[in-house]
Amino acid sequence: MTADFLKGNNMAMREYLEKGYYIRTVPSYIAQRCLDRKSTAVDCKVCSEICPKGIYPTGKRKRPIYDQCIKCNLCAANCPARCITPVSGEVERFLMAVEGKTHFSVGCNREDNEYSLNVGCLASISWEQLAYAALKNGVTVSLRECAGCDNEKKISLVNENLNKLLEFLGDELFDKRVKILYPGDEYELQPETVSRRQLFNFFNNNTLDKVFKVLPELDNSADSPLFFRYMLRDAVREFKKSPDGENSKFTMGMPLVNSKCYACGTCVNSCPTKAISIINKEDTFTFAVEVFKCTQCGVCKEKCWTKAIDKIAPMKVSHLGKVAVAKLKQHRCPQCGKNFSYETGSELCPLCAAKKRVADRKKAQAEQTD
86 CB contacts (<8 Å, ≥6 apart)? Predict the structure, then answer.
């Protein structure tokens, strides 16, 4: 099938993605979520290092030069903070490749084989996309051309994405759902879900309802960079309903807190993706994380002035929704009623304790004078 044959259909999907999900023909960069801007401890330059055209100049206040973008999707797939929206063309191709096959396969354009999706570089496919395809019908990733690649940065990112995929799925599920092709391995062509005639009717008489049905509902337009995270969240929900997925657990990194936490809200306000929430009750509060939104950027840990967030660590979860990380006791000051850290060893909050010390000192001085 030629590009012209699918042109009308692609336009329909592109319009849907742009209006419903704010996914444009070029990547969009959300500066307030950028790790290089949010964090003083991390000097992140992944987008500028991986971009073949250098549209992301170094420097915290410079803007991307989108008129030079070649729409390769390398920046969006590898941004650690997930603050770059993927380009619509690559999203279209991925969705059609996954939904049109019983088994998704991806390989380099330099190979002779025709996979479900052939890309310029495997680093342009994020680990979330691979995980989504693996949970749907399984995935084959061909690394046969990677051995001859001289771009060490891209090779490093491909390895990093595959390691994240392995960590997320776990050894057992990874072995069942993921196949890696190395140089010398043969590729077995997977059967199509539908015949060529059925596919012809699907593209011409259907308004992509089948594909659109798998697309999630975003909370707001600012979450467009997390598009594949939303899709993965929904894929996990569906997979859990199957016999293979009923008891499955997935590994995702998230912040862990200790008893120094007193629900001050600094982490909630500093989280770039609004993944953290604190649920207050009369005597206790719960520190909760929206798992699929957490990018493990570490900004919350950096901003926590009481050092209540120990680390960003992998945890096994049965779903990617809201997870209660810790349930802690409310420690309220009897003077002002505000929460404060339980580990201060004082019955009063630091402000009221300071006021009490001043009052006691003045009282002692007055007694000495008398």
Answer: 23, 27, 73, 76, 77, 225, 227, 228
Beta pairing, strands 250-257 & 309-317: antiparallel
At the top level of CATH, the class of 250-330 is alpha beta
Reference 91, options 199, 206, 14; nearest CA is 14
| Pair type for strands 104-108 and 139-142 | parallel
User: What is the tens place of the pLDDT at every residue in 252-297?
Assistant: 999 999 888 888 889 999 999 999 999 988 788 899 999 999 999 9
Q: In what order do the strands lie in the sheet with 178-181?
A: 117-119, 104-108, 139-142, 178-181
Task: Give residues with Cβ within 8 angstroms of 134, minimum separation 6.
Answer: 165, 169, 173, 174, 177, 178
- H-helix or E-strand containing 76? helix 74-78
Q: What's the pLDDT tens digit per position in 139-194?
A: 999 998 887 888 888 999 999 999 999 999 999 999 999 999 998 888 775 544 44
